[in-house]
Amino acid sequence: MKWFEYGLTIWIIITLNFLLPRLLPGDPFLIISSDSAQDEEIVLTQEQQDYYKSYYGLDKSMGEQYVAYIGQLAHGDLGYSIYYKEPVSQIIFRRLGWTTFIVVSALVISTGIGVILGSISAWYREKWPDKLLFFQMILLSEIPVFLVGLIILFVFSAWLRLFPLSGAMTHFEDYNSWWDKLFDILNHAFLPIVVLSISQLGGIYLLVRNSMTTVLEKDYLRTAKAKGLNQRRIIFHHALRNALLPVVTRIFLSLGALVGGAILVENVFSYPGLGRLMRECIKVHDYQVVQGIFLVVTIFVLLANFLADTVYKKLDPRVKDCATSQGG
Amino acid sequence: MKNLLKKWIALFLALSMIVMLPGCGSSQAKAEEENNLEAQKQVEVIKLAGGDWGYPTPYGIYPRGPGSRKMALIFDALVTTDVDGNIIPRLATEWQASEDGLVYTLKLRPDVKWNDGEALTAEDVVFSYDYQKTYIPVNAVDFSKVVSMEATESQTVNITITEPDPKFMSTLTSFNIIPKHVWETVIDPNNYQDAKAVVGTGPYKLTDYSKEHGTYRFEINEEFWGNEPKVKEIKFIPVSEEILAFEQGEVDRISITPDVLDRFESNDEYEVMQYVTSWAYRLYYNMNNESDFANVTFRQALAYAINRDQLVEKIERGAAVPGNPGVLHPTNKLYNGAVEQYANDPQKAEELLDSIGFKDTDGDKIRENDSGEKLSFTLLADEGSTRLAELIKQDLALVGVEVNVQTTDTKSRDARFAAGDFEMVINGSGGGEDLSEVTNVKKSAKATSTTAEVIGYNNPEVDRLYTAQLKATGPEEQLKLSGELQNLVAQELPKLTLYYTNTIAVHRPKVYNGWSADTYHNDARINFVAD
What we know:
Family (chain A): Belongs to the binding-protein-dependent transport system permease family.
Pfam families (chain A): BPD_transp_1
Shape of chain B: globular
Shape of chain A: globular
CATH architecture of the largest domain in chain B: Roll
CATH architecture of the largest domain in chain A: Orthogonal Bundle
CATH superfamily of the largest domain in chain B: Dipeptide-binding Protein, Domain 3
Largest sheet of chain B: 7 strands, mixed
Structural class of chain B: alpha+beta
CATH topology of the largest domain in chain B: Dipeptide-binding Protein, domain 3
Helix content of chain A: over 70%
CATH class of the largest domain in chain A: Mainly Alpha
Number of strands of chain A: 0
Subcellular location (chain A): Cell membrane; Membrane
Number of helices of chain A: 11
Structural class of chain A: mainly alpha
Main location (chain A): membrane
Order of helices and strands of chain A: HHHHHHHHHHH
CATH class of the largest domain in chain B: Alpha Beta
Strand content of chain A: under 5%
Number of strands of chain B: 17
Largest sheet of chain A: none
InterPro entries (chain A): MetI-like, MetI-like_sf
Radius of gyration of chain B: 27 Å
Oligomer: heterodimer
């Protein structure tokens, strides 16, 4: 049953992936304008437009294209990019690493810090540490991520010149050792990861705080307190285990939001990940790549869901194979 | 790399002092470029803003953006044009038309080598022609008039054309010669991104390219046949914010908008260059769907009502040239400055509207046309021209014409424009205009960027004048006929040019001062090699 659901979801998503970009008005080969005098546009003749359309199979009916697309996918072929003139899988593969790198790093950092701050807040509920944290976190989570990105870019890169302005590494550099290269990459990724972490931190903090507060009010913890157990032991040993259940789900589910955040952050920092690629492709109506990115992201989110399910079962013995929707 | 650790320490210090930040004061570190560059004839490295514009081959570049200029650093055509539009030699040194004007004989430059060491021969030229006829490159060459191309000797090519055409040589300026020994086995050129694909005869060779990062490195081609390039190495690196990257010395030249002009103009370290361009915003009417636009007096009234000087002031802060109702840019060789200019005059616009019976009869400040329909139109614009559309809306509201601005993304606007799914539309594009777009004369096989069709407009006299000036025997006759044509077009106003933008570029003369005054493109070949 579960597998059938996943299968159905994937099929619906593949179909939407196929349809949505094609519903966009506009044509990848029609060029009658440009953005500024900097841009030089080469207008494709009708003959060329027709040639490219048949080259990419876009002259066929939607039904035929759909069948062809499904057939391609079955062979693991994501198609061929109109704009980049390269197999889509290759383009995505090269970019995927960068996005995964900053998304996973940000996930780990924001979860770690969020759990700690949330626990502290819950313990000191309604006292000043809680009020201060709460205010700050609400503030942080309300500022749009691109704005945070811009501010950080201006302060730390432009003004203090502590970090590079853009990109994922120094180019045309001969590194002395892999260590230098790693350092260079970390140096470039630092600000994007910080910004992405900040964007996630508020949500995780609030969740941990709420969940923790509920747990702390439970009878068994009141007992623990009454027994005079050590504070840290109560929070991190007794309470956290129970409070973390919704957080685990949240971590996996927040992957989607993180990828969304990564799109903005990558564009602010010119970071060469999937998000930046997505923006470029939508701008030029490269259906094939847009489809490919959506598909890859979807598969990742589904995978995360699946993992969330599995992990949840491990952590919460109440959720058995047959009882699917109790715990959530 | 060593100072990275220091950076991290500094970061923690900075974080701890973050509250004190405003007090720190920003000491702009002066650019630490080498000072002795003036003494050097040849500059070692120029860094420019990158971005992926495709593999720089005739097939690999992307049709939008500066890909074609990067390709031009590697590949040569037979001839090119100088700034005045005269045909000058590149790979061909001499050319001669037969008496009947049907056969051109071109002599190739002797001893030209591909950058892999092979010699260029007439075979390569003929091969390039055959190949590009089969596989159309991104920037298609108009071969419609070519009957055949043959290598008569190792360095001589004969080109036979269908009918005498004094402008034939200019079609060869976009015909890039590719090496036969590389491409003859390639059957999918769009996908051919091998290192050998960038074997060319031009001044530079590609030594590094990354699609994902958008970086290119071009280094001087030691085998180059022409003048010594002024820069040994050109690097394109990704930047997020061009001004910041420029100020920090990451790139050596950028284009700026007028708002930040002060910042650079008052500083000796920088040099600002301003260029007029033929890139323009234009207003189009759909005369098929909206019969009101077919009324010439109505179009004239709109031209009086839209304050083009104010558009230039408000949107471009003066860094633009108000549109010429005669369409051609004032720097165009054929420009006629005496055409009707329609200086902003709302009162005159109202008089004209009254004269054709477009009056406000129900007192809602919006006029109705002669059959009682409200003069209310949607104006389609993309994100970049929204403000422009809003100002036009205000101008037209003053004379009782209602405009609803509709904003879409660029591609959607383009698609609707091309399909005629609009009432009024603003389109921005570059390239020189030749007025063919307002005629019904059969277009050349190769479209240009500005031939966006004027929908529903048909005037035999315009067509006649256009054809006549094309066939003019001498420059004077062409000037006269084109002048008449412009006069007529300015009377008829099938489309309205709003303004032509200027481009402003900044560079550090200390790093490199060889930027061309003729092109504002950072990466144009003319900046690095004289023809």
